[in-house]
Specification:
Blueprint: H1 2-27, H2 35-67, H3 76-87, H4 89-98, H5 114-142, H6 147-178
Length: 179
């Protein structure tokens, strides 16, 4: 089950990054025809990841209950990883609702208010927190030696891409507010 989850995480990260790059290009004015397809594939990976992670979490809670030892404070990182993952759901749903509108000729938002902009910043922040707290276990699962160097490289690449996404949103918001 954990290997399946690792495959889902890899697929989710790849499609998320492609989706983010295509989305940043589209809201900056470029043509990105594959954006919607990539978004649905990413959402399928996310749904499967949620299901597998929920099953694994329930198994962990059952084992904890049977052992009689909770050690909540000692397992704080475990809980941060779970809570940060589930905290993505609300801004993700908001993202889906905000970006559902458009037509074949040009992408237009219905209304892009400060609240919607903040919800998208929250989405990026929650994803960043979740990814950063889970890089180490993913590296371990992949069996990568010298995990620290790989983890730092991965965090740098992801941080640059997240900055690109945030800048694209900011540019789009400023252009929207100016009209």
């Amino acid at each position: 089950m954990r290997r399946l989850n690792l495959c889902l995480v890899f697929g989710m990260l790849v499609t998320f990054l492609i989706h983010g790059i295509l989305g940043a290009l589209q809201i900056a004015g470029a043509d990105a025809d594959a954006l919607k397809t990539v978004a649905w594939i990413c959402l399928a990976f996310v749904a499967a990841h949620i299901a597998v992670t929920t099953v694994l979490t329930v198994r962990t809670l059952r084992a904890r209950r049977l052992s009689g030892a909770g050690y909540f404070k000692d397992n704080l990182l475990f809980w941060i990883r779970r809570i940060s993952g589930f905290s993505i759901l609300i801004p993700l749903v908001m993202h889906l609702l905000i970006f559902r509108a458009g037509n074949a000729e040009a992408y237009r938002l219905q209304v892009f208010t400060v609240g919607k902009m903040l919800s998208q910043i929250l989405l990026v922040a929650t994803i960043a927190l979740h990814v950063l707290t889970n890089i180490k276990p993913v590296m371990i699962a992949l069996g990568l030696k010298g995990r620290r160097a790989y983890a730092l490289d991965a965090m740098l690449i992801i941080s640059i891409l997240l900055l690109l996404f945030a800048v694209a949103f900011a540019i789009y918001y400023v252009r929207w507010a100016a009209n």
